[in-house]
C-alpha cells in the first residue's frame, strides 16, 4: 500500500482512493486466502484515516460520486463509504478510541458473509431466488463465523457484525450498551448509503431524500441521524442540486451550514453542459431549490475535473479568482 504524498498532483490522490478500494475488494473477496487478515484490515483503516484527514471534503466528494453513480463492485464500495462515514461520525458522537476502531472494522466487514452475492445483487434485475434470500438473511451470522475463522477475537467487533441489521429501541446512545451503540450507528449509516446507491432495479435516491427516509423510521430518528446531517450536510460534496436560476450544480465542499455548501454549475437552464463549470462565490451564489438524484442527470461529468475544482475551492476566494487564468474553470 502506498502512503499519501500531499505534494503530488490531485490526480494521485484520486488514484490513492481507487487503490484503497481495490485493496479492500481483494481482502473481502478472498479473505481465507490472504495471510494476516486483521493486520491488513488495520492497514486499510490507517490508510482511510490518512486520506480523510488530508481533505475530508474531497473524501466525501469521491465517496458520494462513486456511491451514486455505479453498481460495479458494490460490496467493497459500500463498505468503504460506510467506514468513511462512521469515521467522521465517531468524532462527532464522541466515541472512545476503542469503540471507534471497532466500529470501522465492523463497517468494513459487516457483509463479508455475502461479498460475492452482494456484488451480484447490485447488478441483478430479477427478484432474489429462495437460496439468495436465505443467504441474505443469514449473512450477519455467517459474517461472524467467517471472522472467527480469520482469527478475529474482538467480541465487540464480532457481535456488531452479527447484529448489524437489528432494530433497537429509540433511546439515547449513552443509554445503550457498547454493542447496541455501534449497531445503532452502523445500521443508520448502512441504510443511508444503501438508499443513495443505485441498483439495476432502481435509481439511487438523493442524499437529502435519503436523510428524510431515515427520519421517518423511528429507529433511526435519533442523534445519529442528526449527527449524519451535521457532518455531511443536507447536500454533501459530490451530490447534485437544482438552483433557482434553472441551472444544475455539483456540490464541491461543505459550507458554513448544512444547507449552504460550495457549488459549481455544470448544466445551464436549457439543459446544456457548462464547460468550463461555473464556480459560485458565497456573496453572489444562486439558491438551492432541491437535491437531485444522479439518475436525473443526462450528462456524464468528469469526476477528476470536478473534484479538482473542490480542491481549489478550499484555498479561499483569492485562489478561486486566480483560477480564471487556468483552463477549465470560471468564477462567478
TrEMBL record:
A Pfam family matched in the record: HD_5
N-terminal signal peptide: none
Protein name: Phosphodiesterase
Source species of the chain: Comamonas testosteroni (Pseudomonas testosteroni)
Amino acid at each position: 500500500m502506498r502512503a499519501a504524498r500531499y505534494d503530488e498532483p490531485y490526480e494521485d490522490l484520486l488514484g490513492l482512493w481507487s487503490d484503497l478500494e481495490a485493496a479492500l475488494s481483494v481482502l473481502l473477496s478472498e479473505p481465507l486466502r490472504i495471510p494476516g487478515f486483521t493486520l491488513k484490515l488495520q492497514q486499510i483503516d490507517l490508510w482511510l484515516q490518512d486520506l480523510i484527514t488530508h481533505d475530508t471534503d474531497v473524501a466525501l466528494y469521491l465517496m458520494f460520486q462513486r456511491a451514486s453513480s455505479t453498481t460495479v463492485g458494490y460490496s467493497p464500495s459500500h463498505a468503504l463509504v460506510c467506514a468513511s462515514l462512521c469515521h467522521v461520525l465517531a468524532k462527532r458522537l464522541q466515541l472512545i478510541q476503542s469503540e471507534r476502531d471497532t466500529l470501522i472494522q465492523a463497517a468494513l466487514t459487516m457483509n463479508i458473509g455475502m461479498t460475492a452475492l452482494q456484488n451480484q445483487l447490485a447488478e441483478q434485475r430479477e427478484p432474489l431466488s429462495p437460496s439468495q434470500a436465505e443467504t441474505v438473511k443469514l449473512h450477519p451470522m455467517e459474517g461472524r463465523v467467517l471472522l472467527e475463522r480469520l482469527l478475529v477475537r474482538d467480541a465487540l467487533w464480532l457481535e456488531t457484525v452479527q447484529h448489524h441489521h437489528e432494530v433497537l429501541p429509540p433511546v439515547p446512545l449513552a443509554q445503550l450498551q457498547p454493542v447496541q451503540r455501534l449497531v445503532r450507528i452502523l445500521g443508520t449509516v448502512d441504510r443511508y448509503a444503501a438508499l443513495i446507491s443505485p441498483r439495476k432495479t432502481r435509481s439511487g435516491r438523493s442524499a437529502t431524500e435519503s436523510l428524510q427516509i431515515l427520519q421517518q423510521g423511528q429507529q433511526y430518528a435519533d442523534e445519529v441521524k442528526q449527527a449524519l446531517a451535521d457532518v455531511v450536510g443536507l447536500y454533501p460534496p459530490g451530490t447534485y442540486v437544482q438552483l433557482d436560476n434553472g441551472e444544475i450544480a455539483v456540490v464541491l465542499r461543505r459550507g458554513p451550514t448544512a444547507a449552504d455548501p460550495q457549488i459549481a454549475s455544470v448544466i445551464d437552464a436549457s439543459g446544456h453542459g457548462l464547460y468550463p463549470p461555473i464556480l459560485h462565490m458565497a456573496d453572489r451564489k444562486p439558491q438551492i431549490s432541491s437535491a437531485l438524484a444522479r439518475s436525473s442527470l443526462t450528462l456524464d461529468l468528469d469526476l477528476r475535473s470536478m473534484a479538482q475544482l473542490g480542491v481549489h475551492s478550499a484555498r479561499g476566494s483569492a485562489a478561486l479568482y486566480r483560477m480564471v487564468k487556468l483552463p477549465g474553470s470560471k468564477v462567478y
